[in-house]
Amino acid sequence: MARLLGVWRRHGSRRGSADLAAGIRMLVLEGRLPVGTGLPAEREVAAALGVSRTMVATAWEALRGEGLVVSRRGAGSWSALPPGAHAREDELPGAGDMIDFTRAVPAAVPGVAGAAAAALPRLTAELAGHGYYELGLPVLRERIADRFTARGLPTVPEQVLVTNGSHHVLAMALRLLAGPGDRVLIEQPTYPNAIDAIRAAHALPVPVAMTDEGWDADAIEVALRQAAPRVAYLIVDFHNPTGHRLDAEGRARLGAVLRRTGTPAVVDETHVELDLDGDPLAGPPPLAAFAPDWVIAAGSASKSHWGGLRLGWVRASTEIINRLAAARRSIDLGSPVFEQLVLAELLGDPEPELRERRAELVTRRDALVEAVRTHCPEWTFRVPAGGLSLWCRLPAPVSTRIAVTAQNHGVWVVPASRFAAQGGLERWLRLPFTQPPEVLADGVRRLALAAASVLDSRAAPAVLNPV
């Protein structure tokens, strides 16, 4: 708990209990202290943090009043959620006056409703059958395969499996390829839920740091040879959260490394259609084109069309597809038919909706860039050519403190430590540009106020709390 809290003091000794309660509140609401976790005794917390037991007791009492800590005589205390609260940053609402910078997910493209209406007659025909398609609807698999072919990777429907999102692909691949104690290579930073999935499989994430230019191919090869991971998880198209994209030369080199080391890789292509400065069909070929037997490509409709469809897909060799389908039976028996019919309609002529999506995101990206430059001029970042967020470098290691303080200014934001296997990254903050420009501008203005209060007080703990 002490490590997760990091630098939690904001107001010196006068409001230490309030600061401690705020830090623990963030851990619970963000999901880093899962609901139901047994909490250490007050004296243990006090000893670990170097504070008085009275301060801890006061913080605990405040959290009990909010329903975030529950205590029972003889049973101890544990983390909880009051009614209507949320445990994960990807579940936190932007309700009321709160502005939500935790979700890098846009609203639905306008064509979803029309596609649903067009799918209804086809649903009627499906009602006479059993409704189970373990590999996915044939028409949807064919259209997904056509999209891969258009991107430079010849694909047939037999190489496609429809899933319940790209995250579902990773879960299935881990079940198939990795066991408890096995290593899984990841980039650092990376998608937080991927780290959670790896740990849920009782595997060990092996991070390789991204550089300012993107991927360090030498470091990846060294990690593959020395750590011998059973599988890798990579995001080479508009990386989440950095926004980098690996060029064709880099893909050829990485594909060669995967072949030489015999390492299968789950490649998350969730953002591949969100090329904001170019044409997705004219971009670099998929990584699977350079290592066809070793790449499991995971795609999703959540960012390109709508997260509510809860549909994704995997493209791999027919052997891997058949093995994944067999492994899937212990998880589920297929994806919902109606949603597949809707997505098949959307992919029948995908470019009009995708062009509109990209144009909207360009406007929002540029609005966020302008807002950060205006209100947070000390923050630095690359303007990404695609994806859904800015990866901002802060002037001091205060990411978690800003995330905690921002709640008081009406903003939810995820501390960068969530994007790392073992915490850290305190000089970074991810800001999605998935909301309307006026909301983005207001959110950054509020974040600037939170950041100013943190930076103004960051020297105080060293003076007031030398312990």
Briefly, what is this?
The protein has 467 residues and is an alpha/beta fold. The protein has helices at residues 2-5, 16-30, 42-49, 53-66, 111-126, 138-150, 166-177, 192-200, 217-227, 248-261, 302-306, 318-328, 337-348, 351-375, 399-406, 437-457, 460-464, and strands spanning 38-39, 69-72, 76-79, 99-100, 160-163, 183-188, 204-209, 231-234, 265-268, 295-300, 312-315, 389-393, 411-412, 428-432. The chain folds into 3 domains: 1-87, Arc Repressor Mutant, subunit A (Orthogonal Bundle); 92-104 and 350-467, Aspartate Aminotransferase, domain 1; 111-348, Type I PLP-dependent aspartate aminotransferase-like (Major domain) (Aspartate Aminotransferase, domain 2), CATH 3.40.640.
Layout of secondary structure:
Layout: H1 2-5, H2 16-30, E1 38-39, H3 42-49, H4 53-66, E2 69-72, E3 76-79, E4 99-100, H5 111-126, H6 138-150, E5 160-163, H7 166-177, E6 183-188, H8 192-200, E7 204-209, H9 217-227, E8 231-234, H10 248-261, E9 265-268, E10 295-300, H11 302-306, E11 312-315, H12 318-328, H13 337-348, H14 351-375, E12 389-393, H15 399-406, E13 411-412, E14 428-432, H16 437-457, H17 460-464
Parallel strand pairs: 4-13, 6-7, 6-8, 8-9, 9-10
Antiparallel strand pairs: 1-3, 2-3, 5-11, 10-11, 12-14
Helix pairs in contact: 2-4, 3-4, 5-13, 6-13, 7-8, 7-12, 9-10, 14-16, 15-16
